[in-house]
């Protein structure tokens, strides 16, 4: 990119008679190439991924023993869900509340390139419906994130270029009705309504009253306990968009707000709750486990099964998965992903591993221990755990109110 621009500017200068002298021209060319090299080096440092672009050879996770991969990812950067009266950036997000931003689009496109880097060879570089299946929750930001990830993963090649001119994109189906219930707060689910308020309440939080009156005064409107999560989220969205918070959100105040909203006990309470787990990720984990089982059952011709599932979802979905496997819960950043892998191991047979990438541009995975499953985690144990923890369907679970 930088190379193209700098050569173009040299041509522009030349065409307009500003550079006649050959020596000068050489200097400009050398200088502009130098700039291009520096830019490329900076880009490598910043993005990492461009060093592998275009991807040739096997992906970093494309081990021959890998038989199936399911990837749950959080959508890209989005606009805040609310605004407040004195918000200086009230007009900064023309996309609308909660929608994917331009930065979010760029990041998810790059996330798709990282998936290509990880899985090249495991999935072919032509898009094949028989290999991969994509599902999304029912909001625009997850639909769009899925589309961008796929654009990054599947730049049209050879036969799949559908126009003579450069084609940077090809259509790939994105399916609704994801088993992921990361949008549970919007869904009609009585048993969730019955427990969520209590699980998320701020009990005996130090400094809460003082903070609320401070925020209300500065925001020019009443800020209640119920607004805190969305207000904190608004600040996070603005920071990630490169905006400056107003002076009255001092680092101290921000820290206090964060420590209240993301209090470890509060997160553990919520995401560690077995009813929340049943409702938010039960159907998703069961689908993944049963698909793995299907892959391991020799009776079914394995090449009829898709090798990869993608789920475009939410921070709540990812955090609940982490909670279920008893891993530390930090709210996942935009573009974070959890990867469920089924391997056919020479010694152990079918085993399951889970990897975590904490944000969109993380290239190095962290393996998440699968508590209660053993190490290695045998597929049959994994399936047993899922069946035991998620015995009922979602609708039935929603009607079963627990005390
Ligand atoms: C998806 O969301 C749209 C818009 O909010 C709504 O009209 C539609 O009924 C939803 N579809 C499903 C399957 O929930
Ligand atoms: C509450 O405020 C006090 C005094 O400002 C501070 O020392 C303490 O760390 C705060 N507590 C929390 C949980 O932020
Ligand atoms: C796999 O095979 C086992 C044993 O035959 C069977 O009990 C199970 O239901 C099969 N699983 C799937 C997902 O078809």
UniProtKB/TrEMBL annotation:
<dbReference type="InterPro" id="IPR050645">
    <property type="entry name" value="Histidine_acid_phosphatase"/>
</dbReference>
<keyword id="KW-0812">Transmembrane</keyword>
<dbReference type="GO" id="GO:0003993">
    <property type="term" value="F:acid phosphatase activity"/>
</dbReference>
<keyword id="KW-0732">Signal</keyword>
<feature type="transmembrane region" description="Helical">
    <location>
        <begin position="25"/>
        <end position="43"/>
    </location>
</feature>
<keyword id="KW-0472">Membrane</keyword>
<keyword id="KW-0325">Glycoprotein</keyword>
<comment type="similarity">
    <text>Belongs to the histidine acid phosphatase family.</text>
</comment>
<protein>
    <recommendedName>
        <fullName>acid phosphatase</fullName>
        <ecNumber>3.1.3.2</ecNumber>
    </recommendedName>
</protein>
<dbReference type="InterPro" id="IPR033379">
    <property type="entry name" value="Acid_Pase_AS"/>
</dbReference>
<dbReference type="InterPro" id="IPR000560">
    <property type="entry name" value="His_Pase_clade-2"/>
</dbReference>
<keyword id="KW-0378">Hydrolase</keyword>
<keyword id="KW-1133">Transmembrane helix</keyword>
<dbReference type="InterPro" id="IPR029033">
    <property type="entry name" value="His_PPase_superfam"/>
</dbReference>
<keyword id="KW-1015">Disulfide bond</keyword>
<dbReference type="Pfam" id="PF00328">
    <property type="entry name" value="His_Phos_2"/>
</dbReference>
